[in-house]
């Protein structure tokens, strides 16, 4: 992968920014992770000039609505492109077993048969189990169960062709059992629900989320040089970057990224 294109940075209830999802660019192709909670994914892709015809690989982490409902739109629009003869090849969706049925069911309930007819024909599901490895766009992926107690969720580590390692442990605090997987990464994409100093207002811990301080401490301890924080509250977006950076700097000395929707980072 060459670039991280941030399509959304908000948590499930964010309305002033899109739900957290992102694309990674490799050559002319894009690998999408989650699709947010609606058709905002289409605008986010359009804003980045990412054509649907260049998306052949999508990873879906879990079934919560802020990650999966955009998939119904991706299915609909990519199937439309297939029907028009504009889309080459197949769409590959990587997810855990239960998600296959959920994505199919949501799509079948909400979009027409002429779209869902492509399931298992040109829209292909690849079930990933804990520890499964795959080559995608020339990079080496290892998928893992993040160990959520809320909803079965998967994340992944990538060892890129160029040697860069990146870890994405989903939208929960990185569980202790995952540390050996995440260790040695140059990039960690982690959730941070809010500032530690605002924990009483946003109550991250009761929602199984972490704060900027928590994520920064973890990245510092693991000596990870690049940390991206997202999946945040959206109550003061104009100052989010400034405020989160100020708190994070106290605990983390690597490159701290608090992206806005639409930011692009190079690996
Ligand atoms: Zn979420």
Explain what this protein looks like in three dimensions.
This protein has 267 residues and is an alpha/beta fold. It has one domain (3-259): Metallo-beta-lactamase, Chain A, CATH 3.60.15. The chain has helices at 40-47, 65-84, 97-110, 113-116, 179-182, 199-202, 212-221, 237-249, and strands spanning 3-8, 21-26, 29-33, 55-59, 91-95, 123-127, 133-136, 139-145, 154-159, 165-168, 187-191, 226-230, 255-257, 264-266. It has a 7-stranded mixed beta sheet with strand order 6-5-4-3-2-1-14. β3 (29-33), α1 (40-47) and β4 form a beta-alpha-beta unit. Residues 12, 64, 66-67, 171, 231 line the site of zinc ion. Zinc ion binds at residues 12, 64, 66-67, 171, 231.
List the helices and strands and how they pair.
Elements: E1 3-8, E2 21-26, E3 29-33, H1 40-47, E4 55-59, H2 65-84, E5 91-95, H3 97-110, H4 113-116, E6 123-127, E7 133-136, E8 139-145, E9 154-159, E10 165-168, H5 179-182, E11 187-191, H6 199-202, H7 212-221, E12 226-230, H8 237-249, E13 255-257, E14 264-266
Parallel strand pairs: 3-4, 4-5, 5-6, 10-11, 11-12, 12-13
Antiparallel strand pairs: 1-2, 1-14, 2-3, 7-8, 8-9, 9-10
Helix pairs in contact: 2-3, 7-8
The protein binds zinc ion.
Features:
about 270 residues; alpha/beta; 7-stranded mixed beta sheet; 8 helices; 14 strands; about 25% strand; binds zinc ion
Strand proportion, as a percent range, falls in 25-35%
Number of helices: 8
Name the CATH architecture.
4-Layer Sandwich
Helix content: 25-40%
Per CATH, what is the topology?
Metallo-beta-lactamase, Chain A
Q: Which sequence of strands runs across the widest sheet?
A: 6-5-4-3-2-1-14
Rg from alpha-carbon coordinates:
18 Å
* N-C termini distance: 8 Å
Mean pLDDT: 97
Per DSSP E runs of 2 or more residues, the count of β-strands stands at: 14
**SSE order, one letter for each helix or strand:** EEEHEHEHHEEEEEHEHHEHEE
Largest sheet: 7 strands, mixed
Overall 3D geometry?
A: globular
Bound molecules: zinc ion
Q: What top-tier CATH class fits best?
A: Alpha Beta
Number of domains: 1
Detail the poorly predicted runs.
none
